[in-house]
Each structure stands twice: as C-alpha cells, then as structure tokens.
Amino acid sequence: MLAVLSPGQGSQKPGFLTPWLDLPGAEARLRWWSALAGVDLVHLGTVADADEIKDTARTQPLLVAAALLAAEHLPVYDVPLVAGHSVGELGAAALAGVLPAEAAITLAGVRGREMAAACALEPTGMAAVLGGDPDEVLAAIEAHGLHAANRNGAGQIVAAGALDALDKLAAEPPSRARITRLKVAGAFHTPYMAPAEAALAGVAAGITPTDPRRVLLSNLDGAAVNHGREMVQRLVRQVTAPVRWDLCMRTLADLGVTAVLELPPAGTLAGLVKRELKSTGVPEIVTLNTPDDLPAARELIARHSGLRGHEPVIQFRVVVAPAAGTFEPAADLAEGADLRTGQVIGHVATRQGPVEVTAHDSGLLTEWLAHHDDPVAPGQPLARIGGQV
C-alpha cells in the first residue's frame, strides 16, 4: 500500500516553487489560487526570503498550494491512502476528494490569517523536546502549565504555551532531553488558538464536502475518516487540538504501508517515517521536491498501487468503525469471503447499543484489521476490502 503525505508548517524553503513554474499552466494556477488565499503565492514560492515565508498567514496557503500543484502532475486516482501534517491535512483532504482544491486553498488562507491574529493576542511560543522518556516529558510539560501541541514520534514532542513557562521548561528539562525553541509566532494547536478555530468554523460551515474516495487519516487520533462532514469538523477542531502524527504513523504501520511519497516541500515527514518505522520495516520513500522527481514519483505509485502493465489493478478500501466501543465481526465471515455493497460485516458494541458496520463497496474481505472484542475508536480501520478493476 502506498501513502501520499502532505507536509505542514516549517517545511518551507525559499524559492522551492521556482522550478514548478516552468510547467505549463502552473503559474496561472497559482495566480488563481492567490486570489482565493489572499496572498501572492507566486512571489512567496519563488523570490520571498525565509523571514517572509515563515509568516503564518503566508506559509499555510503556500504549503497547501505547493502540495496540490505537484499532485496535479501525478496519477492520484491510483493512490490508496493520504495524510497531512497540521495544515497539510487540508491538502490531504483535497487529494482524498473531500474538498475541491479551491476550498482547501481558501480555508488555508483563512486558517493562516486567523492563527496569526490569535498569536498576536498574547506572547506565546513553542519548543521541541527531543529525547527523554515520553511519559516524563509529558509530565514536565503539564507541570509547567504548557500543552503538548505536537507528538511527532521519533522522540519528538512539541511543547507550547506562555513564553515564561517555556523558559522554565528549558531551564529544567526532563532527564535525557534537550529543548530547542522553535521560530514560530505562537502556541499553535492549543487553546490559545480558540479565536482562530471559531473563525475557521464560520467559513467551513459554508462548504459541502463529499466522502473520501481513498483512506484519509486524521491528525486528531490517527484514524481513517470515512465521512466528509466529519473530516471538515476535524480540520476545524485541529486548530486547537494536538497534532498526533505519531498515531498517524502507527496507522501507516498497521495498514502495512510499503511506500511513502511526500509532496513538496518534501523531507520532514519522510524523515519522521523513516526513523519511527525502522523497527517494523521502513517503507520505500520518494521525496518530491522538483519536477525532476516526477518520474520517480509516478513509478512508485505504479508499483505500489497494483499496476503491472495490463494486469488487473487491485484496489483496497478500508471499512472503519462508525462509533467508539468494542468490535464484534460477523461470525460467518472469514478472510477471502465475497462481500456486497451494504452487507453487514459486524457491529460495534457501544453504551447506547450495537451499531452495525457495513461494507461500502463490493469485493473480497482481504484482511480483518480488528478482531473480536477489540476496543475501537470512531474512524479506526476494521477491515480491508480488495477488488479488481
């Protein structure tokens, strides 16, 4: 299985979009998206310096635009799974078919402006806590009145909150941990961003999303999200909620991902995946940074989507939990069974009673991803369905 990843804030580099403007229609596309985002994406992606593109109001739409611009030159219809980090979730949601590209760009512009405005309300910041025991790091962050805003795996947790509290954490770091202050405008993914969340919710309410056409993971809990409206709600909530990229990577491992393609500006997420999944088997990784990388990216998609010349293409779809509870698969269904659309394949036992789990597509029950009495969260993958097309 192939996963396409869309990076988040901090991955941008001066001039990283310059080579992409040589492609037909790319500059016109960016100028159209600039009108939607309220920033000059062509200028920001080509001649702007590092200080200009680290401005939250500019960075967020720039990153979403870069990912979607590159994806237009890929066979995305063959991609089975997408995920994004922080604002990168907007790009991932567009690639999954939940949002039109224009809606994702517009929301990124609103999100960036409103988060920048929230940062100006009081002095806050973020710091990466590298190494140490995770439980001790989290306890220290809480003890200083800070928030664990990002849990990126690979021994990295990001603390966020008041500047004086960050100073105290740096002066008293957890055992075997080091603190690196991040050059950001404020405490993203914490309650300090509540005004930005409210503003984004007001705009997002006017969008009519569709359900994902491929597996779409959420930063909220690493689960696959099956309904478009729920994903939009999660995208809004993520402004104040921690980014659990560690759980997204755990899901990549659980689903048996064999290859990862990171969209531009690529490198950060690929590095996290490489370090985090080394114990379970590092997937094949391609970082897409310039048009020169497109042939390798297309070849990776072809090999890991099941394409083999004129042989049948095997597409996998994931059935996810509709509610929290314990999973009970249908007693008469074994791996390899033929399923029809709408067939009940089990239920989730909740406090309010059983909730049926149905197959959204026909095909073979390729693999159970959850088993009898397993606790499950909403959106958690339960079974994989495969079929030839």
TrEMBL record:
GO terms for molecular function: [acyl-carrier-protein] S-malonyltransferase activity. InterPro entries: Ac_transferase_dom_sf, Acyl_transferase_dom, Acyl_Trfase/lysoPLipase, Mal-CoA-ACP_Trans/PKS_FabD, Malonyl_transacylase_ACP-bd, Single_hybrid_motif. It is an enzyme of class 2 (transferase). It comes from the Bacteria. GO terms for cellular component: cytosol. It holds the Pfam family Acyl_transf_1. GO terms for biological process: fatty acid biosynthetic process. Keywords: Acyltransferase, Transferase. Its EC number is 2.3.1.39. This is [acyl-carrier-protein] S-malonyltransferase.
